[in-house]
């Protein structure tokens, strides 16, 4: 697998689509704040170990979801190629910014150990309302992930690689999670992307090398494919 770039990309892309949303789903299940007070200053005190693990899982879930978004661009080469090349990087940027926001968790944990939950929340709100934080890390970047991924999946559906329910289920999961309070309901909502993206990941893993390579543009002269590149460097 590691000697063949096409096979490696196929396996890596499929694995990302399965693992990334799964890490997010595991994070919400083990998060003490899911089942109790959702404020980090409180949930860290309830279970410091699980609070740290869930934060790390969210961090890596968002980073890998950004890579997964880029991986989806490959199956949009035949149709909706321009759309995919625009939305893919935008969605990736959104998830990278979501990951960056998690650096505020240790700050809130520390505040929770030295102040009351209400005072810790007040200080965090003042910090997070700073214009540099809002426009540098939050607006509109995080929405590129939450709303952008379902839109990207619409392109994957239009390209013929996904069923119609894939963008619908992912959209319900991510968009609805922004409208409800973080808690047990979020567990069900974030199980939705696991099913949607996971189905695409399994489909990629089941593809043959020939099916994967067929998405590369081979008709236009001057285009490089894994096979043509291998022939020129052999």
Structure, described:
- This protein is an all-alpha fold and 234 residues long.
- Helices cover 76% and strands 0% of the residues.
- It contains 15 helices and no strands.
- It has helices spanning 5-30, 32-35, 40-46, 48-72, 81-101, 104-114, 117-128, 131-138, 141-146, 148-158, 165-177, 184-189, 191-206, 209-213, 226-233.
- The mean pLDDT is 89.
Structural key phrases:
single chain, 234 residues, mainly alpha, 15 helices
Rg from Cα: 20 Å
Q: Classify the helix fraction into a percent range.
A: over 70%
* Fraction in beta strands: under 5%
The mean pLDDT is 89
What class, by secondary structure content? mainly alpha
What are the segments in which pLDDT stays under 50 over at least 5 consecutive residues? none
First and last CA, distance = 18 Å
